Amino acid sequence: MVAPIEIIYDACVLYPAPLRDLLMEMALTDLVHARWTEEIQTEWIENLLIKRPDLTRSRLERTISLMNQYVRDALIKDYQQLIPELELPDPEDRHVLAAAIHGGVKVIITFNLKDFPDRLLEKYNIVAKHPDPFLANLMVSYPNEMIKVISCCQERLKNPPKTINEYLTTLENQGLPKTVSIIKAVIADPLFRI
Hints:
The chain has 194 residues and is an alpha/beta fold. The protein has helices at residues 11-14, 17-28, 38-51, 57-70, 94-103, 118-121, 131-141, 143-156, 164-173, 177-188, and strands at residues 5-9, 32-35, 107-109, 127-129. It has two domains: 5-129, Rossmann fold, CATH 3.40.50; 141-188. Helix 6 (118-121) links the parallel strand 3 (107-109) and strand 4. The chain starts with a strand and ends in a 6-residue tail after the last helix.
């Protein structure tokens, strides 16, 4: 396998737990070199606490601590000086682009592609990608590795446990229909072996 691609996760892809778990497992197995900032981490936690008051800040901060501990060189720092000079449709998203520039990251993974237009990113040689085509491409390029990641995430679910088909439905509901379609085709192939 080639060197893992450098990516930065926008807060919106870290917000949903099933997708965050999949993205973290990919980073732990070196399919990607995942990056983020404290500001990105704070953003997804704040948004999640608004929607899920049953969760506690301390539990989510523990999740962040584990993410920072186990994903090597994930935390980008000292990028704030770039923010004022950047232009994006939503000024609140400039911190993500600033961190990508400072961290040498070439891909921003986000559901909010309209907030990161190609015409504004291209001068930095950075692209924004929706997680579905990004993950689908990884499935095509590295099917064995991706199936191992997906199996690990599915097997980790205990409360409640999920079959592989139930887990794939969860991923589809996370906005990953193309990825799930490719996963199903790969695991249905009688010649496929992990």
